[in-house]
Amino acid sequence: MPTDASCKIIFLVEDNRGDIRLIQEALKTTATLCEMVIARDGMEAMAYLRQDGEHQNAVRPDLILLDLNLPKKDGREVLAEIKADPQLRHIPVVVLTTSRNEEDILKSYDLHVNCYISKSRNLSQLFKIVRGIEKFWLETATLPPSEGR
């Protein structure tokens, strides 16, 4: 894990290996120095965020990119747990999912998601989306201080 305070930690919660790779590639083209940590299911995501078990030395992320359709514990449950936890609720969460379902969008905002973005299947559009997320959330927005870094 990086120790440089200027390095931002992006926590990607995504089970699709192809999407993980594309998001990693898109972030390589951005200006912000960042490290990506990946969880492939909702249970692993919450263990990491709560620093449970093998994740006891996990670094608090600056930004969470969360898919909704996850195995073991879906993204809606993960979002609800993050926003209900006083230690985690200040971490910005961007839902990045294929769902364009109005119910998913409304439910996510009811659960206090910071932003909801539907993934594009168009490669150049997906790169543009990821670079936009990085530019806004890691360069423009003022984030809460990272605890324990």
TrEMBL record:
Modification type 4-aspartylphosphate: residues: D67
Residues in Response regulatory domain copies: 9-134
Keyword annotations from UniProtKB, A to Z: Phosphoprotein
Biological-process GO terms, alphabetical: phosphorelay signal transduction system
PROSITE patterns for the chain: RESPONSE_REGULATORY
Highest taxon of the lineage: Bacteria
One Pfam short name: Response_reg
Name by which UniProt lists this protein: Response regulator
Species assigned in the record: Thermocoleostomius sinensis A174
